[in-house]
Amino acid sequence: MAPLIRIESLHYTYQHEGGAVQALRGIDLTIEQGEYVVLLGHNGSGKSTLAKHLNALLLPTQGDVWINGWNTKERRHLREIRSTVGMVFQQPDNQIVATIVEEDVAFGPENLGLERQEIRRRVEWSLERVDMLPFRHRAPHLLSGGQKQRVCIAGVLAMQPSVLVLDEATAMLDPIGRQEVLEVARRLNREEGVTIIAVTHFMREAIEADRVLVLHDGKIALQGPPRTLFQQIDRLRALSLDVPHVSELAQALHRRFPAFPPDLLTPQEIAAAVIACCEERREESGERSARKDERGERNRTRDKFTLLTPHSSRPPLLALHHVAHYYMRGTPLEVKAIEDVNIEVHRGEIIGVIGHTGSGKSTAVQHFNGLLKAHEGEVWVLGQNLADPAVDLRAVRRAVGLVFQTPEAQLFEQYVGDDVAYGPRKQGLGPEEVRARVRRAMEAVGLPFEEFKDRITFSLSGGQMRRVAIAGVLALEPQVLVLDEPTAGLDPQARRQLMRHILDLHRQGVTLVIISHNMEELAEICDRIYVIADGRTVMAGTPAEVFSRAAELRAIGLDAPDMTQVAEALKAQGLLPADAVIYTLEQAEAAIAELLLAHGAALVEAPVGEQTR
User: Fold this and answer.
1) 42, 50, 520: which is closest to 241 by C-alpha?
2) How many domains does the chain have?
3) CATH number, residue 510
4) Could you point out which of 40, 203, 267, 353 has its C-alpha 20 to 30 Å from the C-alpha of 53?
């Protein structure tokens, strides 16, 4: 039986004013009906370019793509190809065309010229498949990000494709939104036999796949099942990628304890393997001895992992006290975006802000530099109440810099140097001082001044644009930098590089406020974390305090780091004390290693520096 998708010697070149860029360099690939395939790769590796060839949005510069036996170059088969392969992109708002959910889902079938009764049947069927039938009469703009993305999937499903391509479809979603979309994909694959091809930067999403393809510089560099692929940590990092923390933990434990399996993919698998090792040793050494060791381990773990950072007694640098804000206030469309947000930021801290999509995070932080005005409550910045008409808002905005989630929204000059210089020039600084500030700001975010100052802004990669946006704010020399999802949409290497530069700024004295859906990232760097849900601050504390309430986080649409989930499973079995605080890879490895040693597991001493990351 012929494969559903067949690609031979695919090359593709983008033509720009500045010259040609070869995005794909000889791709050979077959995908069978019912497969679940994930495409990984750094920004610019060719993933999205390859995906767009699957329904003829792009045509090969050289080579061929066959979909169900049709060559995409043959335009007479375009309708059949696009009915076979449906695509869902990163931004759901760019795909929704109607003002009512069911009308949007009906758009595709209507364009196929189907009978009204068949259209109605397909709309109901597809909305039911993505659990959105109760929202059929809702306006899409009133839905959450995950719900909007499910509506987009329903719109594609109503065309009854054999293949569903998800091109970074979860990149801008919160954990529950990602989970919603992935659950739909899993169900369609298993129950309906739909072939799934997912482009993603989230390594955790790749564990769902039958096969993972890694693209690098337009070529397939690696491929295989995730359980095999994620054991190649060094190779993946050389390709600017990473592995899930669970895989990294399994391999670190395997290096120290050879009997521990190295190919685990989920927190549940890690916990099961630890439990199995402990039970096996318990049977060998006797129940009484094991219980004694277990009690000792509990005590050691409690001593090691329950130290919490005390709260600061200093006056805050920034503060929101019971802040509320309305959009379109005084109109029939008035919406209360936030209603009781409380955040305090002290000088020198790194503060994390988390919450589900639509919780009010971005609305809240835009009060810190006066972009939004509080309708209720108080906003204090550098000891000033922003409700005071005498406050100089321009000075406030120089002191508190804000970088938005989409960097291209803040870039408007043709050349990088001019974009970074915009703020200092508006301050009336002289040419030499402007140049010096631009140089310092660009160097601070890893953009060499001489190399990048004359680059065309919109020719940069996503990670580079993000850094230019940050440099433009840094050129104002702020005391506080507020970053809204600074690493969203970036590949692992670009994410690591950007976070390294951001932490360098903190070491230079800049106070940081970071909104993120990346729990592992915030767990490792933040002094304190605020949790916002439905427009209110519902939780606050150190990472240890916040992530120890994992069940409450899940109840409001968030998640805990993978390492916390591992610890929870071990606590449930009595192998770790209930008050053990574990949320980083290093903590999890240390705690489990002590646990295995306490139960007599054989240890191989690894060379210094190889036992952890």
Assistant:
1) 42
2) 3
3) 3.40.50.300
4) 203
Q: What is the pLDDT of residues 92-121, one digit of tens each?
A: 888 899 999 999 999 999 988 889 999 999
Cβ atoms of 339 and 536 closer than 8 Å: yes
Sign of the Cα torsion 334, 169, 128, 560 reads negative
How far apart CA 236 and CA 41 sit, in angstroms, is: 9
- Residue 598 banded pLDDT, cuts 50, 70, 90: confident
> What's the confidence (pLDDT) of residue 299?
36
Are the CB atoms for 480 and 399 separated by under 8 Å?
yes
Contacts of 445 (CB under 8 A, 6+ apart): 467, 468, 470, 471, 474, 498, 501
Sheet strands (E) in 147-273: 163-167, 195-199, 211-216, 219-224
**pLDDT higher than 60, residue 147:** yes
DSSP 441-494: HHHHTT--HHHHTTSBGGGS-HHHHHHHHHHHHHTT--SEEEEESTTTT--HHH
Q: Please check whether residue 469 lies inside any domain of the structure.
A: yes
Model confidence at 292: pLDDT above 80: no
Contact at 8 Å (CB) between 83 and 161? yes
Average pLDDT over residues 477-489: 88
Owner of token pair 């490792």: 524
Sort strands 62-67 and 70-71 into parallel, antiparallel or unpaired: antiparallel
Q: Are 257 and 604 in contact (CB under 8 A)?
A: yes
CA 550 and chain centroid, separation: 19
Q: Work out the number of other CB atoms within 10 angstroms of the CB of residue 104.
A: 21
Nearest residue to 554 (alpha-carbon basis) of 585, 521, 579, 519: 519
Distance (Å, whole) CA 203 – CA 81? 30
Give the 3-state secondary structure of residue 545. Answer: helix
> d(Cα 245, Cα 199) in Å, to the nearest integer?
20
**pLDDT surpasses 90 at 198:** yes
Does residue 358 fall inside a structural domain?
A: yes
| Closest C-alpha among 209, 175, 120 to residue 559 | 175
Measured between alpha carbons, how far is residue 466 from residues 22, 166, 218, 441, 461 in Å?
Answer: 23, 24, 23, 13, 9
Q: What is the per-residue pLDDT across 424-462, written as a single tens digit (0 to 9) for each?
A: 998 889 999 999 999 999 988 888 999 999 998 877 877
Which residues constitute the domain of residue 273?
245-306+579-598
